[in-house]
Amino acid sequence: MRRTTPIAVLTALGVIALAACGSSARTTALTSAGTTGTTAPPGVTAPATSAPGTSSPATSVSTTVAGAVDPNAPEVNGPGDIPDNQVFVPYNDTSGRYVVSVPEGWARTDLANGASFTDQNNIITVEAMALSTAPTPASVKANDVPNVSKLKGFALGDVTVVKRTAGDAVLVTYFADSAPNAVTGKTVAVAVERYEFWKNGVAVVLTLAGAKGADNVDPWRTVTNSFAFSI
After folding, report:
1. Mean pLDDT of 186-190
2. Are 5 and 147 spatial neighbours (Cβ–Cβ below 8 Å)?
């Protein structure tokens, strides 16, 4: 049986640019968990001044060592980094085939076979399709990689089998350029992780994309380990 390539594999990077401009007629926002608080940077307390003839009170000087990391300083995220305190909420497939956790507050766009969730240069796309046999690295290389390789700036990484909570998945990693931003015309280099899960004749493709260089290892692990079939 010839498999159907998920549309989101080819359009996910374009959705990034669209989301940046808020130009989706079918986009809704997930409930936001609020904003992250900040802590004032550490400083040095100036010595107190005393009147002539009186003793000076003890001065309080910060003992922070130059170059040391302040454990109370606010988190500084690079471009596209998902905050460590990001809250995740479950997304249930409308057909009842799977559930996966996605970041709270991200904009959702409904797709023909799933949904995408975007925030700045980050995007999560999940789509389901009928597939008679479980995918393998060889079958994914033959049937899916040729389609995503059409993306501008494409550079293939690895095609491997990885273990997640739901079981084995075929993982494809690659780099590509996003579609030009509708306002600035600029593109963003993104790193993509494409997971393909399979069970009982249903394949679910979970694609995670973020700005190249962003540190999203932990959030992506949270998302992929939260995936579970409901069939």
Report:
1. 92
2. yes
pTM: 0.71
DSSP string covering the chain, please?
Answer: -PPPPPHHHHHHHHHHHHHHHT--TTEEEPPP--PPP--PPP--PPPPP--TTSPPPPP----PPTT---TTSPP---TTPPPTT--EEEEE-TTSSEEEEEETT-EEEEETTEEEEEETTEEEEEEEEE-SS---HHHHHHHTHHHHTTSTT-EEEEEEEEEETTEEEEEEEEEEEPPPPTTT----EEEEEEEEEEETTEEEEEEEEEETT---HHHHHHHHHH-EE--
Q: What angle do CA 20, 215, 114 make, to 5 degrees?
A: 50
